[in-house]
């Protein structure tokens, strides 16, 4: 992306983030975003199909970049510290991302995450979990082993869905300054065979 296009995209994303933190993301219009960014509609459509697409794509890219280090999980099953999980740090990164954009994630006419924003979080969680499970098929309980393609997808979807649901409950009901508490609950409620505690 050339520097001019990057400046336009940054202005659009900044404006969309600001507006989405003030009202339901589904209520945003292209006119709202372009007016706030000082960018033409034609330029907007070079970057996104609609405001939800713009916000969701930007959030997804931001979270994926933050989690990139964990997509190649270390060979060990245990965390750096005894008694910690390999998922402690990626879970912290995940929760911190949600906390940083809490006002955007909270805004929904239905009182929960919009389907597109839920997909941002679910996709990121599934990517980390899939990478780990592919590296460590030996952690799969005997009752599930060996995982075929469908079982693998179901297992990852279940774990990712639980992570997202727990994070959403924290977003709605919890103390958003208590990152440690949120991480502790997500890890404590995950199936123990996933965690590789040392």
CATH architecture of the largest domain: Orthogonal Bundle
What structural class do you assign from the helix and strand content? mainly alpha
Q: What number of structural domains do the residues give?
A: 2
The best one-word shape is elongated
Order of helices and strands: HHHHHHHHHH
Q: Roughly what fraction of the amino acids lie in strands?
A: under 5%
Largest sheet: none
Helical content band = 55-70%
Short description:
It contains ten helices and no strands.
Would you kindly provide a written description of the structure presented here, covering whatever features stand out?
This protein is mostly helical. It folds into two domains: 3-50, Orthogonal Bundle (Arc Repressor Mutant, subunit A), CATH 1.10.10; 53-195, Tetracycline Repressor, domain 2, CATH 1.10.357. Helices cover 65% and strands 0% of the residues. Helix 4 (51-67) packs antiparallel against helix 5.
Tag the structure with descriptive keywords:
198 residues, mainly alpha, Arc Repressor Mutant, subunit A, Tetracycline Repressor, domain 2, 2 domains, 10 helices, 65% helix, 0% strand
Secondary structure elements and pairings:
Layout: H1 3-20, H2 30-37, H3 41-47, H4 51-67, H5 88-100, H6 102-106, H7 115-135, H8 149-173, H9 179-189, H10 192-195
Protein name: HTH tetR-type domain-containing protein
Keywords: DNA-binding, Transcription, Transcription regulation
Domain HTH tetR-type: 6-66
